Hints:
The chain is built from five helices and eleven strands; from the N terminus they run H-H-E-E-E-E-E-H-E-E-E-E-E-E-H-H. It is of the alpha+beta class. Strands 1, 3, 4, 5 and 8 form a five-stranded antiparallel beta sheet that branches. Strand 4 and strand 5 form a beta hairpin. Helix 1 (12-22) packs across helix 2 (37-56), helix 2 crosses helix 4 (188-203) and helix 4 runs antiparallel to helix 5 (208-223). The longest helix is centred in the first third of the chain and has 20 residues, at 37-56. The radius of gyration is 24 Å and the shape is elongated.
Amino acid sequence: MTTYQMTNDQTLQAVVEAVCSLVSLPKPADAAGSGDPNIQLMVTAANLASLEMLNTYEWSTLTKMASIDVFTTAPPSPGQATETAFDLPGDFYRFIDQTQWNAAMRFPAVGPVSPQGWMTYMVFPISANFTLTWQMREGKLWFLNAPPSPGQAFRFMYLSRALVRDADDPDLYKNVANKNGDTFMLDGVLMTLLTRVKWLEAKGFDSGSAVRDFMLAFDSRIGAQKGANILNMAGGPHDYPYIGIGNLPEASLYGMRQ
Length: 258
């Protein structure tokens, strides 16, 4: 029987120790509580590195799916548009593009609508009623002319900013590592290499070779991860990616054209 023993190189302590080895500094016994300015800077650099990596790619470990039941208890008056706000998930960072769907109607949700387009809908309500029209504003998700209860399910995928799992509570996730055992939810090698870059830059040292090392590792990691094309039976590049039996690979089993 095959067994595996994997080293957890994603904790704050492990990342700091690895970077110390790369820059010829003594490894600290307590990275989070160290009084050494170099180590304190390295802890800050590690957290900055995790935030920067969050912006560079749609990491599978941080990709989540969610659903919001969209409805209103106050139907609009004839000829008038209404808007209803809903809270986003507590760890929401940004949407994964083209994943917003009206699950009840099986149509893509229309959005994000620009402020200019939204005001047009509000002043001259001509939006279609067969799907959900949405916009981000004031840290909330707004819907135009939400249907009455029980409403319709708005399903989507998003990138989480819960970058760190707490050392003492495995059910607690946060976006800053401040304990030695806090675990970054991102690749440990990339975290180490980018933390070194941030530390060298903050110290005013040459970071050219460190940047190259990170970019080589980063390109190698994400280059092998390729997403599938969006299924589209509408035929045009600007049409909605409707999914149907006519454009599914399995359709050929039934003698249908793909």
